[in-house]
Amino acid sequence: MDVRTVVTNYYELANAGDWDAWCDLFAADQVMDEQLAGHVEGRETLREMMRGFPDMYASFANTPRHVVVDGEQAAVVSHISATTSGGGRVEADVVNYFRVTGGQITYMANFHDTVPFTTALAPA
Q: Which of 6, 8, 104, 114 could form a disulfide with 27 if both were Cys (CB 3.0 to 4.6 A apart)?
């Protein structure tokens, strides 16, 4: 897969809630720097982490607004709209950076305001 296809699939699979197939987009030795989850190494570590995602969110949508692809890199500006299982709302603008090698995501980082997430995920 080319970089644009990988990135497009990333959002399509996330929005479909197909987290197992979403994890398959990542290389076995992937590295992710995620603002809430921290530094995550390895696809299977990521897969285990994502198993709990459906329990955390009753609904989740990450809508790309602007995509830039340059060689093996991509940056995406998107908007997350979500509802937690406890009824909290999340509205956040996000920037994701991707490095794609051999048709798989080898590195990803996201950047966003954490307040909408921490407020929504705080215990009632």
A: 104
- Least confident range from 22-26, 44-48, 64-68, 120-124: namely 120-124
Domains along the chain with CATH numbers: 3-121 (3.10.450.50)
Cα of first residue to Cα of last residue in the chain, in angstroms, is 43
Q: Round to whole Å and give the CA distance between 20 and 8.
A: 16
Beta-bridge partner residues of 76: 67, 96
Distance CA 100, CA 105 (A): 4
The residues, any chain, with a CB within 8 Å of residue 97's CB and separated by 6 or more, are 73, 74, 75, 107, 108, 109, 110, 111
Residue 26 half-sphere exposure toward CB, CA atoms < 13 A? 23
pLDDT one-digit tens code per residue, 13-38: 999 999 999 999 999 999 999 988 88
Distance CA 77, CA 47 (A): 24
Interatomic CA distance for residues 44 and 19, integer angstroms: 12
